Amino acid sequence: MTPPRLPLSRQPLRQLQDRIATGLITAGGIGVLLAILAIGVFLIWETLPLLSFGDALTLSTLSPLAWGTLKAALAAMLFATPIALGAAMYSALFMSSRLRSRIKPTLELMEAIPGVVIGFIAGLLLAPWVERNLTSTLLLIMWLPLSAALAGGLWHLAVARLRKRLPLSLAGIWLIPWLACMAALALWLAPLIEQHWLGGDLRRLLDQRYGLDYATRNALIVGIAMGFAIIPSIYSLAEDALADVPHSLMEGAQALGASRWQALWKVALPTAGPGVFSAVMIGAGRAVGETMIVLMASGNTALFSASPFEGLRSFSASIAIELPEATPGGLTYHLLILAALALFIFTFVVNTLAEVVRQRLRRRYQRLGGAL
Amino acid sequence: MLASFSSANAASAPVMRFSAEQCCLSIAQFHLAYAGKAALRDLTLDIPRHRVTAFIGPSGCGKSTLLRAINRLHDLNESVTHSGHIQLEGQDIHDATMNVTELRQRVGMVFQTPNPFPMSIYENVAFGLRLQQRLPKRKRDDIIEWALTSAALWDEVKDRLHRSAWQLSGGQQQRLVIARTLAIQPDVLLLDEPASALDPISTLKIEELIRNLKSQLTLVLVTHNMQQAARVSDYTAFLQHGELVEYGPTDQVFTNPRLQRTENYITGRTT
Amino acid sequence: MRRLTPRLYNALHSGLWPWLCAACVALSLLMLTALLTLLITRGLGHFWPATLEEVTLVSGDVVIGQPVREAPLPNADSLERLYFTGNRDITGANWRWVAIEDIRHQTVPNDLIRLERSPWGDFLGRLTAVESEGQRLTGQEAWAFVNNTLAKPASQRPAGQLLLTTADGQTLYQSLDSVTHFQTPNAMSWGQKVVTWGQRIWQFLSEGPRAANTGGGVWPAIFGTVLMVILMSVIVTPFGVLAAIYLNEIAHQNRLTHLVRIGVRNLAGVPSIVYGVFGLGVFVYGIGGSIDSWFFSDELPSPTFGTGGLLWASLTLALLTLPVVIVATEEGLARIPDTQREGAVALGATRLETLTRVVLPMATPAILTGMILAVARAAGEVAPLMLVGVAKLAPQMPVDGEFPYLHLERKFMHLGYHLFDTAFHGEDVQAAIPLVFAIALLLVLIVLALNLTAIFLRHYLRRQRGNEC
Ligand SMILES: Nc1ncnc2c1ncn2[C@@H]1O[C@H](COP(=O)(O)OP(=O)(O)OP(=O)(O)O)[C@@H](O)[C@H]1O
Ligand SMILES: [Mg+2]
Question: Where is the chain membrane-spanning (chain C) (predicted)?
Answer without folding.
Answer: 16-40, 218-247, 267-288, 308-328, 358-379, 431-457
